[in-house]
Write a sequence for this structure.
């Protein structure tokens, strides 16, 4: 993400600076010699060059900060996904599934059945034996993640010709009690459980 000034803003700034400079120079021209004027212009050029350098340094620092934040976010997302998969594995271990291994996977969806925007389907956790699909989110704010999981579940059921059990794992939930209860009911109809950590 760059923080360059918009061309319109640059034009506006140049216009304002130019007007002020012209007015100041007209006033000063009455008192300055040509050499003095030339020296003043050189000093102004130097100041503008230093300002450009500061803007470039600021932009570089901002880009480095953005990169660091993205890296931290990426690492946290991977850890959260692994934690979510581990939680589902433990729940199912309690039900007697001792050899379950959930892994993230990317599948191709050439018919755009999961998303009209992409043919790539990211699965946070999947197992074929037993057939389990997991969707993991940091905070459940609305039904979007649940709808995506339902679409993904239907996609993998069609792809592998077997019924999957689903888990929606959320480390937090911002839904009110009534909305959450409605969502749990919808998920139950699709053979999906909500694990709200």
């Amino acid at each position: 993400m760059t923080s360059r000034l918009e061309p319109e803003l640059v034009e506006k700034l140049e216009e304002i600076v130019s007007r002020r400079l012209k007015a100041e120079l007209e006033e000063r021209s009455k008192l300055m010699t040509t050499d003095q004027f030339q020296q003043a212009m050189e000093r102004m050029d130097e100041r503008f060059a230093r300002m450009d350098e500061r803007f470039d340094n600021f932009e570089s620092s901002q880009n480095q900060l953005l990169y660091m934040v993205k890296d931290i976010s990426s690492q946290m997302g991977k850890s959260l996904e692994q934690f979510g998969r581990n939680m589902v594995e433990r729940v199912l271990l309690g039900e007697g599934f001792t050899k379950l291994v959930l892994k993230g996977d990317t599948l191709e969806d050439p018919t755009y059945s999961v998303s009209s925007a992409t043919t790539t389907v990211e699965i946070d956790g999947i197992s074929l034996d037993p057939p389990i699909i997991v969707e993991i989110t940091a905070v459940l704010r609305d039904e979007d993640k649940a709808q995506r999981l339902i679409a993904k579940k239907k996609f993998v059921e069609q792809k592998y010709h077997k019924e999957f059990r689903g888990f929606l794992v959320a480390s937090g939930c911002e839904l009110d009690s009534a909305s959450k209860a409605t969502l749990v009911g919808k998920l139950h109809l699709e053979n999906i459980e909500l694990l709200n950590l």
About this structure: The CA atoms of residues 67 and 166 lie 34 Å apart. The chain is about 60% helix and 20% strand. The chain has two domains: 7-72, 76-196.
